[in-house]
Amino acid sequence: MTVNASSVPLAYQAYTSAAVPEWLNKGDNAWQMTAATLVGLQSVPGLVILYGSIVKKKWAVNSAFMALYAFAAVVICWVVWAYKMSFGEELLPFWGKAGPALGQRFLIGQASLPATQHYYRNGTIETALATPFYPMASLVWYQGVFAAITLILVAGSLLGRMNIRAWMMFVPLWLTFSYTVGAFSLWGGGFLYHWGVIDFSGGYVIHLSSGVAGITAAFWVGPRTKIDRERFPPNNVLLMLAGAGMLWMGWSGFNGGGPYSANIDSSMAVINTNICAATSLLVWTWLDVIFFGKPSVIGAVQGMITGLVCITPGAGLVQGWAAIVMGVLSGSVPWFTMMVVHKKWWLLQSIDDTLGVFHTHAVAGYLGGILTGLFAEPVLCSLFLPVTNSRGGVYGGVQILKQIVGGAFVIGWNIVVTSIICVAIGLIIPLRMPEEELLIGDDAVHGEEAYALWGDGEKYDNTKHSGTSDDLTPQHKASSGATQVV
């Protein structure tokens, strides 16, 4: 059925014209918002569930809440000042000028990024990375959920002992003085971007930085209690797997949204991401079987994560066979550093990295960046990178040297800045929980517990916990003095 344009009210025609300008590519915009939502779901509820399940019961609420709080805090800080520090006008070669990303005209205007090459397909120009064909609001949100998940990953090193008030201060400070520097340097037009260091979708900006910052902050916060370090079983393995599954599936948006367009690179990124993750999971699992006699479920999740992290710096820039090679190495090198090096090196032994974020994100992220420098395919590079003639070592390039230097900068900056932030916070409020809270856990920190389970030797105090007598079993009503109505 056709509609006569003259029969459509002029006000509606003006509205649709303004809402769908000529430069808007609906397919690109739909994919970018979908990718951003997938990345957001990796954090909330993905990592909230994973963190709340992979720790022992007494830390379930605190661990999940650290992730939830970080997500909310980063979203606000991001739109008020941090986005422009990452993607705005240059203040320093590694840092942008702070400013709000809240104005209507700014958000509904066409997204813009540092000048780079165009995408090419069959000799024709595709969407240009410098001017994505969708509103700035889509780009601000996509990059915002990237920033949020980075802080949540840092939290993985600090679970089970960091003062929640200190964490509430740490989140905006680290976002401002660490994350924005990496993002601007590698993505926002900084010196590493123009030099040609490759970070397709956050292997350095997100994973290397969070892994290094996590273990650095863990050093300053101090270890968990002795009993927690010796025995820290997950309180719900099945829920942990549910959170891990959300993390894996959400990674299609994490890497697939990297080109800022629904194009060839985004498709390559998605398939390579899943190839590498699957390979890494299998390799890690078989190493556990060979050396420890049993396949570890937690180990499989760690292998999955290292595969996802490793492919991230070059997801849309390598061939499928290279993704398999990267999966084999991401399932074995971090396994070796975690299971062998960690147990023999006194420095790693002295620092309590609760979830091994250093191994799963820092080691895997740096490994992925270096391997990208080895396997980056010239034609795929020409579709994405701002520097011409970029190519991996196997194709005769010197990209691997740039990758090593770029990673070294991210490592050095995070060690120094994270240390300064922790020391500064420590002058105001203790970084570590009081001993009483460390012994009791969630109930002491939040006045809440993850599971209302009774009959395991605990005494129910109805003056302390909320709820009515109807919440109790007849046995607990009797023991608590509650009146039982028949």
TrEMBL record:
<feature type="transmembrane region" description="Helical">
    <location>
        <begin position="362"/>
        <end position="385"/>
    </location>
</feature>
<comment type="similarity">
    <text>Belongs to the ammonia transporter channel (TC 1.A.11.2) family.</text>
</comment>
<feature type="transmembrane region" description="Helical">
    <location>
        <begin position="297"/>
        <end position="315"/>
    </location>
</feature>
<dbReference type="GO" id="GO:0005886">
    <property type="term" value="C:plasma membrane"/>
</dbReference>
<dbReference type="InterPro" id="IPR024041">
    <property type="entry name" value="NH4_transpt_AmtB-like_dom"/>
</dbReference>
<dbReference type="Pfam" id="PF00909">
    <property type="entry name" value="Ammonium_transp"/>
</dbReference>
<feature type="transmembrane region" description="Helical">
    <location>
        <begin position="234"/>
        <end position="251"/>
    </location>
</feature>
<feature type="compositionally biased region" description="Polar residues">
    <location>
        <begin position="469"/>
        <end position="486"/>
    </location>
</feature>
<keyword id="KW-0472">Membrane</keyword>
<feature type="transmembrane region" description="Helical">
    <location>
        <begin position="64"/>
        <end position="83"/>
    </location>
</feature>
<feature type="transmembrane region" description="Helical">
    <location>
        <begin position="171"/>
        <end position="192"/>
    </location>
</feature>
<keyword id="KW-1133">Transmembrane helix</keyword>
<keyword id="KW-0924">Ammonia transport</keyword>
<feature type="domain" description="Ammonium transporter AmtB-like">
    <location>
        <begin position="30"/>
        <end position="451"/>
    </location>
</feature>
<feature type="transmembrane region" description="Helical">
    <location>
        <begin position="405"/>
        <end position="429"/>
    </location>
</feature>
<dbReference type="InterPro" id="IPR001905">
    <property type="entry name" value="Ammonium_transpt"/>
</dbReference>
<keyword id="KW-0813">Transport</keyword>
<feature type="transmembrane region" description="Helical">
    <location>
        <begin position="204"/>
        <end position="222"/>
    </location>
</feature>
<protein>
    <recommendedName>
        <fullName>Ammonium transporter</fullName>
    </recommendedName>
</protein>
<feature type="transmembrane region" description="Helical">
    <location>
        <begin position="30"/>
        <end position="52"/>
    </location>
</feature>
<dbReference type="InterPro" id="IPR029020">
    <property type="entry name" value="Ammonium/urea_transptr"/>
</dbReference>
<feature type="transmembrane region" description="Helical">
    <location>
        <begin position="271"/>
        <end position="290"/>
    </location>
</feature>
<keyword id="KW-0812">Transmembrane</keyword>
<dbReference type="GO" id="GO:0008519">
    <property type="term" value="F:ammonium channel activity"/>
</dbReference>
<dbReference type="InterPro" id="IPR018047">
    <property type="entry name" value="Ammonium_transpt_CS"/>
</dbReference>
<feature type="transmembrane region" description="Helical">
    <location>
        <begin position="139"/>
        <end position="159"/>
    </location>
</feature>
<feature type="region of interest" description="Disordered">
    <location>
        <begin position="464"/>
        <end position="486"/>
    </location>
</feature>
